[in-house]
Structure formats: C-alpha cells, structure tokens
Design a protein that fits this description.
The chain is α+β, with helices and mostly antiparallel strands. The protein has one domain. Helix content is about 15%, strand content about 20%. The chain contains nine helices and twelve strands. Strands 3, 4, 5, 6, 10, 11 and 12 form a seven-stranded antiparallel sheet that branches. Strand 10 and strand 11 form a beta hairpin. The longest helix is centred in the N-terminal third of the chain and has 11 residues. The radius of gyration is 22 Å and the shape is globular.
Length: about 500
C-alpha cells in the first residue's frame, strides 16, 4: 500500500521544487514588510556534544540588516506573531506550534537616541545595564493537542540582546550580551532570540542575473550576504516533545521518525493609524510570511500567486501544482550552461523536496525523509532518528556528500543548499543516473562557505552579529572553504550507500 502511494505521488509530479537560495523579500507584499519577512528556517539534531537528544529549530527574520543602521538599529516587531510549526503526521497541518511575542521597553524616552544612550556611561555591559535603553522582552508559548488553542506559556520576561552597535557601546559582545541571552527551559531545552550574523551564503547578484555566476564551481564567487545581520529565533527541545508518539523513535525507519518544520509570521487583520501617528491593531491573526524549504516562493510560485502562497498552510500546496509540474529553473540552466537536464515530470525533485524520500535502492534501507499523506507539502523534513555528524566531519553537501545528517534531512546552518539545489535541479544526483555526470553533479555558485569564519559549536550555533562600527567586508572573492570542514570526494556510485 505504501509503495503504491509513493508511486502515485511521484507519477503525479505535483510539486517539483528546485531551490537556489534562502527567502529574502521574495514576494511583492512581504518585500515591503521586512520585519515580518522570514529569511531562513533550519531544523537539525543538536550537534553540541551532550545535546544529541535534542533538536534545534531556527527561524531567521528581517533580511539584509546593515550593522551600522543607526540610531534605531534592528529589533523584532512587537505587532508580529512569530511562530515555528511542526507537522508529525504528514497532512500539512501543524501538530506542535511554538509562538513568540515581543515587547519593547524604554528606560528613558527623553533621549534623542534609541537602543542605547547615556543613562550611566553609555556602555551596555550586560542585559540589565541601564544604558540598554530600548530593550525587548519576549514570551514563548507551546500549542499542541493537549494544551488547547491558547497553548501553554513556557517562558516569559526573557530579554533579547541589543544589536551589536560597536566596540565602545557593546564591548565583548558575545560574552557580555549574546551568551547570557541563551535561556534554559524547564524541559531541558534552550531558547535564544536576538541579532546574529547572516550566515547563509550565496552569490545572489549572479544567481538572479539570469544565472550570470562568476563561477560555477566551489570558489571564485562573491558572498553577497556577507557582513549583514539577521534576527534569529532559536529553540532547542527534546526529541520526544515533537514526535507523533511523544517518544524517541527506535530507528530511522520508525513511523514516528520524521517531522516537518516550517516558520511563519502573522499580523492582526486590522490596523488603524491615529492622528498622533500611533498605531492600533486588532482582529484575527493573518499569516503573511512562511518558509520551509528555502526559495520555493522565489523560483517556483508564479508572481501573481506569491502573496497568496505566503498566507497559506502547507496543506494547501497542491493548489500550486499547475505552476510547478515542469520547473523553470532546469530549463534556464540548460539554456545558460548548455547542459542536458532530465525531462519533465521531475519525479526526483518531487521525492527530494515535496513528499520526502522513501526507503529505496539508492539511499538504502536505513534512510528516509518521507512524510506525506499523498499530497505535496512544503516544509523541511527531519528524521530525528538519524545520528548526528560531529562538527569536524560535517559535509556541506549533506546527503549528496554522503553525510546523511544534512540537507535534505532537515537543514543545518552548515549545509550549502545552493550548491545542493543547483545539482539536484540539473539532475546531478544518483536519482537521475543519466545526467549524474559533470558538470551537472559539480555545479556551484562559487561560494561554499561563509568567509567570516566558522559557526559556534554551541547553541544557537550562528555567529555573533557584525558590529556597527566596522565596514562590511562583502564583495570579496572567497576561496572554496574546504579547509574549514572536511569535504570528502563524492563517488557518484556510493555517495548514497548508507549500508557501507
């Protein structure tokens, strides 16, 4: 029965969804509402030693933050409901939701500045410093079938760190402000909300100039997002808190081993602007941003439906089937690069990105990310029973590099989803053996790592934000980054063989 269901899904080719980047200002309306714009979503088993029994969920918002964007800098929007959602049954409907609400507090309103000012010595040395003039607190609420619609408040009064203003105002940023903003939860997990370095890397200018990339290999490209910051919500929870059985799955092929993860942002349905320029909002929450797999809305959904897509649940993704049966990106790659790509319908992409990968002869009997009720749903699929890959052995190409703990099994911050997606779209994977040849299976955007340095080896993993008093270091050619992490040579005949 399961086999026939899989075959039926793949034959319909409902949701072939090639990726190319993250989701920065991807739709007309959300491009004008950056404080609700979800840029990246990550889901992976915690890599920090001793934390393997937890999963880490990260949702990034507010793209392209110029670190020196003074004097107000950047903070979460008090009027936005930020959420991380989990489907553990495969129907495209959230079974577990974590909600985050923020509130801005001001110490002294008479200052001409904002986040920082001269209340004492103008130095923010800790989260409770009086010179942290405009600080935010937030609440965390969990909603599941046991809590009811209002959910259960699991944390309140937590503080976000300020933006990294500079060495004089926010000295020793990570030790004084970043690390203290990581809070322990009662279930043994952790939570963090605040500014971080934009670690996602891509030659964005070349990609959207009709694939006019400076390089189509591992090096020679420009990391367009280098030097920018984002606002991150990071949550670490025990594995058993998110599975269907509420237990730790016994093995990767257990029925409760795979979960689906996506993030959203919502606003109240009515906003009134008063004569004194103050805003009053009320009414039901309306979802206006959504992100599971990166760049689905940019490169798959037609322009006229992008805003609609941002407002819908993954359960409705079959509505976009007519637009994605025959993806446009592979055709563009064929024209620009002069390569042969697999013909439509792209059943390989359906399996990788839309339904999850069932147990098969290519990936072997101990690997699956399959989670679907027979329909396509756009979310990250994480098999929580697949063991982690230690930091020093992580392969940026994830499954394509033989690293089964990486994308498309969830998404780690380390994963080079751009190169993975380019190769998948070109048919350069063992799922399409006729096109699994060079250059299809060696394509890249010339940027294979964040040139600013390695990730932290502890939660929340993302690097501290770039300081406002330092020039951005973007627009510099990067090397291939192979010294930063082990990148084994991929044998196209064995990279997927998990039985070895």
């Amino acid at each position: 029965m399961i086999r026939s269901l899989i075959l039926r899904i793949m034959s319909l080719a409902l949701f072939a969804t090639p990726l190319l980047a993250a989701s920065h200002s991807e739709a007309p309306l959300i491009s004008m509402d950056r404080f609700a714009d979800n840029t990246d979503t990550y889901a992976f088993r915690s890599i920090e030693p001793g934390r393997e029994g937890f999963i880490t969920l990260i949702a990034n918002y507010i793209p392209f933050q110029e670190p020196s964007g003074a004097p107000q800098y950047f903070r979460f929007d008090d009027t936005v409901l930020y959420e991380i959602k989990i489907d553990n049954t495969g129907d495209g409907v959230e079974d577990v939701t974590y909600q985050f609400r923020f509130k801005t507090n001001t110490v002294r309103k008479s200052t001409v500045l904002g986040m920082s000012t001269l209340n004492e010595d103008a130095v923010i040395s800790n989260l409770d410093d009086p010179d942290y003039n405009q600080f935010q607190t937030y609440t965390v609420r969990r909603i599941d079938r046991y809590t009811g619609k209002r959910g259960k408040l699991i944390a309140k009064g937590l503080k976000t760190p300020p933006s990294n203003i500079g060495s004089r105002t926010t000295p020793n940023y990570e030790n004084n402000l970043g690390r203290p903003a990581v809070y322990n939860l009662q279930n043994g997990g952790k939570v963090f909300a605040g500014q971080r370095d934009e670690y996602f890397f891509i030659d964005l200018g070349g990609a959207f100039d009709t694939l006019n990339l400076r390089s189509i290999s591992n090096s020679g490209g420009i990391d367009t997002t280098q030097g920018f910051n984002v606002s991150s919500i990071a949550l670490e929870v025990p594995i058993e808190k998110v599975t269907k059985s509420r237990k730790i799955p016994a093995k990767p092929t257990s029925k409760d081993a795979v979960i689906g993860v996506w993030a959203t942002a919502s606003r109240r349905s009515v906003r009134v602007l008063r004569s004194n320029n103050k805003r009053f909002e009320f009414g039901a929450w309306k979802q206006i941003s959504r992100l599971g797999n990166p760049l689905v809305n940019e490169l798959v959904v037609p322009l006229g439906l992008k805003d609609t897509y941002n407002g819908l649940s993954p359960k409705n993704d079959s509505l976009f089937a007519s637009a994605v049966v025959d993806p446009e990106l592979p055709k563009l790659m064929k024209t620009v690069f002069g390569i042969e790509v697999p013909p439509a319908p792209r059943n390989d992409l359906v399996s990788i990105f839309a339904t999850g990968i069932p147990v098969n002869d290519v990936t072997g009997p101990n690997y699956t990310t399959f989670l679907s009720d027979g329909k396509p749903h756009d979310f990250l699929r994480l098999n929580v029973a697949i063991p982690i890959t230690p930091f020093d052995n992580i392969n940026r190409l994830g499954l394509l590099g033989g690293d089964v703990a990486g994308f498309p099994n969830g998404r780690r911050v380390h994963d080079d989803v751009v190169d993975i997606a380019l190769r998948a779209a070109a048919g350069g994977t063992p799922f399409t053996p006729d096109t699994n040849v060079a250059p299809n299976n060696t394509l890249g955007d010339g940027v294979s790592r964040n040139p600013e340095g390695p990730l932290m080896r502890r939660f929340p993993y993302l690097r501290e934000p770039n300081a406002g008093n330092q020039p951005r270091t973007s627009n510099q050619t990067t090397d291939d980054g192979t010294t930063a992490m082990r990148v084994p040579t991929v044998n196209k005949n064995k990279a997927f063989n998990l039985e070895k």
